[in-house]
Amino acid sequence: MSANVLACLRTLALSILLIAFASPAFAGPFEDSVAKFANDDFSDTADAVAEIAASGNPRAYSIISALQDERLMADSDTKKVYIKQPDGKIVDAATGAPVDSLPDNASEVRLNNKLRRHVQAALGGLTLLSPDLETRISAARSVFKSREESALPAVESALAKETDGTAKAALQQARAAILLFKDDATEKQKLDAVTTISSRGDEEALAMLNDIGSGQPPSVAKAASAAISSIQSRLAMWSAVQNAWYGLSLGSVLLLAAIGLAITFGVMGVINMAHGEMVMLGAYTTFVVQEVIRTQYPGLFDYSLFIAVPLSFLVAGAVGVLIERSIIRFLYGRPLETLLATWGLSLVLQQAVRTAFGPTNREVGNPSWMSGAFELGQITITYNRLWILCFTLAVFAILLVMLRYTSLGLQMRAVTQNRRMAASMGIATSRVDALTFGLGSGIAGIAGVALSQIDNVSPNLGQSYIIDSFMVVVFGGVGNLWGTLVGAFSLGIANKFLEPVAGAVLGKIAILVLIILFIQKRPRGLFALKGRAVEA
């Protein structure tokens, strides 16, 4: 046989092979599995998902994720399946080859709730071996929720290779969730699974153990019942811890808003209804600082609060001194007139801010170091609340040092205890009054900086806190900073423990009634001031 004949035979054989592999009749197993999506049958779709996930084909993840995102299209006539890419392009699902347009008969592959669980489990199994740690942990948690049996081989394979402790624990919990509901799992496997799931101690573990049917062995049912009781006790404890944290968070906000009021009310005896507007001015100063930084110096945004704190103190403090010198000093000894004058002033300040900035809420952003949250046991702690608590305690400590070790602080304490004796000793009480009112207003201003991170910045911001601030001051003891601290945190914690039982509105009413009853017994609050003038 000549060389030319052999060459022709080789060419013919190669052509036959190419035609065979190009023909749908000779399509491979992966292409057959993909084609099942075109049958428009839920059971065929479930089979396709399981087969594609087990195939190890690099296109498996993109196909199943497209199915989950409702981007998988199928033509029932040609049995072709297509993926709509996020950028609008169309590709063949089996090969990844680009396609000009979808056929007219192509329709979206349908899903039901059961299939969605299959898809979620399949995606979890496909990402269990990802090089990214967070992806592996997320995939393991996804399998735990779906407890899909088809993901068990992938979970066990990933568990054998895992070295990170957190990811390994997540994989063990996923494996336990599957085995607990697997019909042919041994009794020992199920008991071990109950122990592993119970160690999570969260709501998801509790819900999973509650889903165990009556067909389980008695020992497994008994172990599950004991685990449920243990988790419920643990969750009740963590719920109390979470409420306590929320109470401390609320108490820190109340303390910031009330601490300046405690100074002015205690030293001067002035019922300042415009105190909330000092808080508002501090919040709007923060807004202005961030607007300047956004437009002129965007790289400094993370430092915006460090700039806003002293500026807010100066702005609110200057306004406070101006109010005292122009209005308050003419009304000493006339509490009703002072209350009405400061209430009218609060309306004027609100309208002035509406005119300058508009009536709508203004956006004040969180710096990166105040964004996000972290978990501690079964509770979630947000960074902005945590930093506000630390900031509040720092302001409180600085104020205590100032009152104890500076000349202004000594003069303020002297005027608080006995104004006439302080005046006879040469202390300029009118100057102390002005500086005290400015100090209290300045602290309210920096309270506005903190509140801008957790509340809406609007002309009505201060009105939300003025009543609560007066409650804190009266409950703790007028003019006593330690009383204000204890009062703020006590009311904050009590409020958060009452809310789940009575609701937000009834809880606040209950707190108000309790304070009224308490004041009947202790009119001077928890920590009464000492001094001849006070006790006279």
Can you put this structure into words, describing what you see?
The strands form 2 sheets. The chain has a 5-stranded antiparallel beta sheet. Strands 6-7 form a two-stranded antiparallel sheet. It is elongated and about 100 Å long. β1 and β2 (80-84) form a beta hairpin. The N and C termini lie far apart (131 Å). α9 runs parallel beside α11, α11 runs antiparallel to α20 (481-502) and α16 packs across α18 (429-451). The protein has helices at 3-22, 29-35, 42-55, 60-68, 113-126, 133-146, 152-161, 165-180, 187-198, 203-210, 218-268, 275-296, 304-326, 335-357, 383-405, 407-417, 419-424, 429-451, 463-476, 481-502, 504-521, 532-535; strands at 72-75, 80-84, 90-92, 98-99, 107-108, 373-376, 379-382. By secondary structure, it is mainly α. The chain is 68% helix and 4% strand.
